[in-house]
Design brief:
Two copies of one chain form a homodimer. With 175 residues, chain A is of the alpha+beta class. Chain A is elongated and about 55 Å long. Helices cover 18% and strands 48% of the residues of chain A. In chain A, the strands form two sheets. In chain A, strands 4, 5, 6, 7, 8, 9 and 10 form a seven-stranded mixed sheet that branches. Chain A has a three-stranded antiparallel sheet with strand order 1-2-3, with no helix packed on it. In chain A, strand 5 and strand 6 form a beta hairpin. The model of chain A has no long low-confidence stretch (mean pLDDT 95). The first copy, chain A, folds into two domains: 35 residues, no CATH class; 128 residues, Nucleoside Triphosphate Pyrophosphohydrolase (Alpha-Beta Complex). At the A-B interface, strand 2, strand 3, strand 5, strand 6 and strand 8 of A face strand 2, strand 3, strand 5, strand 6 and strand 8 of B.
C-alpha cells in the first residue's frame, strides 16, 4: 500500500520557546486532500538509572498542563542539534545528582505521532556515583528511589502514568 | 515539598482543530516566576486487541509529523467529552473491522506531561468478531496481525517506536 502524503502548503501558526505549530494541507496517496496540524518539538532524553539491580531513580514534580504532581524517570529536553547522549548525562546529574559509569542505549520512541514530531531517546544508566543535584532555573523537583517491584505496582495502579517512563521500563526489561 | 504552581496569566495563542496552545506565566512554590507553554488536546484511546492468546492486531500508517510509516496499536482521538470506552469500541471497529466481546481497562497515560495535557486511555480487547473496516475520511491505514514475540522483537529493534503502543503492551502484560 502506498501511504505517502505530499505537502501542498505549510503555514507556521505559532513560534514558541518549547513548541512550534504548523498547519499543513496535504494530498494523500489516493488523491484525497487532508489537513494536518503539526507540533514541532526539539525532542528529549529519558534515563532508566539503576542504583543497584533492584533500585531505580525517579523524580517527583508538578506538571503544569495537568496540574498534577507526577512520578517520572529523570528526563529532559534536547537543545536543537544536541547529541542525545550528552543530554542524558547532563539531565541525570542535574535532576538526581548522579553520574553513571555504565550506559546502554534503549532506542527511542515518538510520544504523539499523530500530531507531534517529539522523539525521546531512552538510556539505561548503572554504576552510579553521587555528585550534586543542580536544577535548571524554574525547575523544582524531588529525586527519590523505588524498587523495580514497587514501580510495576505503581504502573498497574495508575500512580505512574507518564508514557516515557513506561516505555523505558519496557525497553529496559525485555529480551 | 510544595510543588504547586500558580497561574498568573494565561493567553491562548493558537486555536486549531486538533490542538490549542496557551502561553502562561506562573509562580512557583518558592516565589520564582516561570513561563509555561501548554498544548491542549482532547485525548484518545488505545486498544490492545488479541485475536487469540498469541496474536495482536496492529495498524500500519503514514505519520505526517515524522514523514514515516509506523506500526501502532489501533487508536483514535476522543471527541471532547466523549466516554473513552465508547471511543475505544468505535476506533477498534473502524480501523481493524473487529468488534470485541470482552474488554478490560488498562488505565491511562499522559504522552508528554511537560508541555501537553494529552491523556490516553488504554484497553485490552478479546473474543473478536469480524464486521467491516470503516475508516474516517482522510485516513489511510492497513490492519495487520503480529505475534506477541514478534511485537517484542520489533520493539527491541526500534521497528515499533510508538510510545502509546509500548505503554499498552507493558500494561497488558505485567502483574
Amino acid at each position: 500500500m502506498n501511504f505517502q502524503e505530499k505537502t501542498l502548503k505549510s503555514e507556521q501558526v505559532y513560534d514558541g520557546r518549547i513548541v512550534k505549530v504548523f498547519k499543513d494541507n496535504v494530498e494523500l496517496s489516493d488523491g484525497q486532500k487532508a489537513y494536518r496540524e503539526v507540533v514541532k518539538h526539539s525532542g528529549g532524553v529519558v534515563i532508566l538509572a539503576y542504583k543497584d539491580s533492584e533500585t531505580i531513580l525517579f523524580v517527583r514534580q508538578f506538571r503544569y498542563p495537568m496540574k498534577e504532581v507526577m512520578l517520572e524517570l529523570p528526563a529532559g529536553k534536547l537543545e536543537y542539534g544536541e547529541d542525545p547522549f550528552v543530554a542524558a548525562k547532563r539531565e541525570l546529574e542535574e535532576e538526581t545528582g548522579y553520574q553513571a559509569k555504565k550506559w546502554a542505549d534503549l532506542g527511542y520512541v515518538y510520544t504523539s505521532p499523530g500530531y507531534s514530531d517529539e522523539k525521546l531517546y531512552l538510556y539505561k544508566a548503572e554504576d552510579l556515583i553521587y555528585t550534586k543535584q543542580n536544577l535548571d532555573e524554574g525547575e523544582i523537583l524531588e529525586p527519590l528511589e523505588m524498587s523495580y517491584d514497587e514501580v510495576l505496582k505503581k504502573i498497574n495502579d495508575n500512580e505512574i502514568v507518564d508514557a516515557k517512563t513506561l516505555c523505558a521500563i519496557l525497553r529496559g526489561n525485555i529480551l
